[in-house]
């Protein structure tokens, strides 16, 4: 029986519904990216402004007291963050801590009150906060001073908060520009050989060998915007900056906040007194409104041009792949269809020859179905999280919201993982690789707990996460698997009883080569954006350009799917029908390049020292690589579209009936 049956001139891609949807998603991502780049303000739903007024005008509608909160201290030279109270700074004995959400707990944020408290629009100069004394003869005081020295040597950074805004430190750099960060150092260290590091480089007076210089004074500038409301005159804070200083106060009763810096000799054996002080002033700004007050943090973030270069680079890759796919779709495949419908052609060739084996179940189908299910869960979670972030709901102003949203969505998307796994494998059993991630997190948390880091998750939080997993995610997973296991696949052709022998393949068409090549293009679309993400995680820089990230996310999906379709078509043309795992690994191999780049970033960009920090870096990196591996393989579910391609191409084969095959791997 002849297997011809395509109508002459039929273009199977005229009904292709996927491309318009991809265009819609790409357009949506472009709009969000343009909005992020061009907008100067956003209002985060759920966060209301706080009104401030002077002490003599305080009412129930406004307050005069401004509280300063402190967050954990971190360093680019160590992965171990510490709580503010771990160091021997000035402590607030009342210790008021705002409630923390799940995301803040998982990120290790520990926000607490401080003894720094100001009155609105009241200028103060050289105000004493507290005095700390150290005697090297007393072991407990010596340990506190040594830990403070260690913090200065590793360049640990303060993170202060006023009215839910990070207090920034700006300094001049080359070209007359300013570089602003949301943290400022404890101090700095000049080595015994006279090499200055970190903040000591900016202060020529910090020049003594083997000496620590402590920033024990801060000059704070708070900017406010005044508005005339209906019945009262109120103000809202729009920015907070500071300048750390080092002063050796001789007389605590007559503070002047000038003179020689606060020096701590490296081999100090004498008694030492440190007095912490501050100065604060207020400035009015009539241009900056409360809704756009976070814009001042972007002053030093001159990465927009680089971001657009990244987007342009990614678009070039996508256009190249789209052109390749279009050539196959509109020319090669169409010519094949015309050829098969010509009456004088009796012999099939290429991808047509494997129509009886292309739907043959792959080896290790259980493993494949599990990975696809987990990948779908991560894919949906990532898409919704980034979309909400683009709308401003997960802004940095809403601390911990990004991680909280990701965890909640991951739990709720268990149903999709079970459904996809059961749909592919068609069974009611389900296994998860989440336990691998949990074991990794547990080991990393154990190291953090031993080191006394603030990022260590408490036992109660771990129990809560397990409760979310077993109490919500697992039941939803079995529910999805139950629904997916009752559906059948209908194939337009039957599967041959005897597998077709695959001809000898050239080296460039073997799986190893194609998988390596297939991961290069997707990684080329994201490596610039990946640099900013790693900077945000390990260099403690604020990441708020979610519009760019969402656009790159969409481009990555398109690139992975097109590269996979392209390579799989070439392999089918060479009569190799083992496309399941090859299609899966083609885009997932991008995670290998991700890991290689993370290794390069560790040695080239970071100054991390210590065995514990190194283990933590690569431990957390492996979690990110595994999640990225699952995410990119779920984009291979667009290979379901390749399945549709083969169905359409074979739909009008001259076959007496359509076989309904229950797909059991």
From TrEMBL:
Keywords of this entry: Membrane, Signal, Transmembrane, Transmembrane helix
Keyword Cell cycle: no
Residue ranges of coiled coil: none
Membrane topology: Multi-pass membrane protein
GO CC terms, sorted: membrane
Chain ranges passing through the membrane: 308-330, 370-394, 400-420, 432-450, 456-479, 512-538, 544-572, 579-603, 615-642
Compartmental location: Membrane
Record GO biological process: protein localization to membrane
One Pfam entry name: EMP70
Family assignment from sequence similarity: Belongs to the nonaspanin (TM9SF) (TC 9.A.2) family.
Protein name per the record: Transmembrane 9 superfamily member
Species in which this protein is naturally found: Muntiacus muntjak (Barking deer)
Classification of source organism: Eukaryota, Metazoa, Chordata, Craniata, Vertebrata
């Amino acid at each position: 029986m002849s297997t011809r049956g395509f109508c002459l001139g039929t273009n199977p891609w005229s009904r292709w519904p996927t491309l318009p949807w991809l265009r819609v998603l790409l357009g949506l991502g472009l709009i969000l990216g343009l909005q992020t780049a061009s907008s100067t303000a956003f209002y985060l739903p759920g966060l209301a402004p706080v009104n401030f007024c002077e002490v003599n005008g305080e009412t129930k509608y406004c307050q005069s007291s401004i509280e300063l909160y402190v967050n954990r201290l971190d360093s680019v030279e160590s992965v171990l963050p510490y709580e503010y109270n771990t160091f021997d700074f000035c402590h607030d004995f009342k210790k008021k801590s705002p409630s923390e959400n799940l995301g803040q707990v998982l990120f290790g944020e520990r926000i607490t009150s401080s003894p720094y408290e100001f009155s609105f629009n009241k200028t103060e100069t050289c105000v004493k906060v507290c005095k700390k004394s150290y005697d090297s003869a007393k072991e407990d005081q010596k340990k506190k001073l040594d830990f403070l020295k260690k913090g200065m040597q590793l360049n640990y950074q303060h993170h202060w908060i006023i009215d839910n805004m990070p207090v920034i430190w700006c300094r001049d750099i080359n070209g007359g520009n300013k570089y602003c960060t949301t943290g400022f150092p404890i101090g700095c260290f000049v080595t015994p050989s006279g090499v200055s590091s970190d903040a000591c480089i900016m202060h020529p007076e910090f020049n003594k060998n083997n000496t620590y210089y402590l920033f024990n004074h801060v000059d704070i500038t708070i900017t406010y915007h005044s508005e005339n409301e209906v019945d009262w005159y109120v103000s809202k804070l729009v920015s907070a900056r500071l300048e750390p200083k080092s002063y050796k106060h001789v007389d605590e009763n007559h503070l002047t906040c000038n003179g020689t810096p606060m020096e701590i000799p490296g081999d100090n054996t004498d008694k030492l007194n440190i007095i912490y002080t501050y100065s604060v002033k207020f400035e009015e700004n009539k241009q900056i409104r409360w809704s756009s007050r976070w814009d001042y943090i972007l002053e030093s973030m001159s990465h927009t041009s680089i971001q657009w270069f990244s987007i342009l680079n990614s678009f070039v890759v996508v256009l190249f792949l789209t052109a390749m796919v279009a050539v196959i779709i509109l020319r090669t495949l169409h010519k094949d269809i015309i050829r098969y419908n010509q009456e004088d052609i009796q012999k099939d060739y290429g991808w047509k020859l494997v129509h009886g084996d292309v739907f043959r179940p792959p080896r290790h189908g259980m493993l494949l179905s599990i990975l696809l299910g987990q990948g779908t869960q991560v894919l949906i979670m990532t898409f919704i999280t980034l979309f909400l972030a683009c709308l401003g709901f997960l802004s940095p102003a809403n601390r911990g919201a990004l991680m909280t949203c990701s965890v909640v969505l991951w739990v709720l998307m268990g149903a999709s993982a079970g459904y996809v796994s059961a749909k592919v494998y068609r069974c009611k059993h389900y296994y998860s690789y989440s336990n691998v991630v949990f074991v990794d997190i547990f080991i990393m948390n154990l190291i953090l707990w031993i080191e006394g880091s603030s990022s260590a998750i408490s036992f109660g939080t771990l129990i809560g996460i397990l409760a979310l997993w077993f109490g919500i995610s697992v039941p939803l997973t079995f529910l999805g698997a139950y629904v997916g296991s009752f559906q059948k696949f209908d194939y337009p052709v039957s599967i041959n009883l005897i597998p077709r022998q695959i001809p000898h393949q050239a080296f460039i068409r073997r799986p190893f080569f194609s998988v390596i090549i297939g991961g290069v293009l997707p990684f080329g679309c994201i490596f610039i954006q990946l640099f900013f993400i790693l900077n945000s995680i390990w260099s403690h820089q604020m990441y708020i350009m979610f519009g760019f990230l969402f656009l790159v996310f969409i481009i990555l999906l398109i690139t992975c799917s097109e590269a996979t379709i392209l390579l799989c078509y070439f392999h089918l043309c060479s009569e190799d029908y083992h496309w399941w795992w090859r299609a899966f690994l083609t885009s997932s191999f991008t995670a290998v390049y991700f890991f290689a780049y993370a290794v390069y970033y560790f040695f080239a960009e970071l100054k991390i020292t210590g065995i514990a920090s190194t283990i933590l870096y690569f431990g957390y990196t492996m979690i990110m690589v595994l999640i990225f591996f699952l995410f990119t393989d779920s984009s291979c579910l667009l290979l379901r579209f390749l399945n549709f391609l083969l169905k359409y191409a074979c739909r009008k084969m001259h076959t007496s009936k359509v076989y309904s095959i229950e797909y059991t791997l």
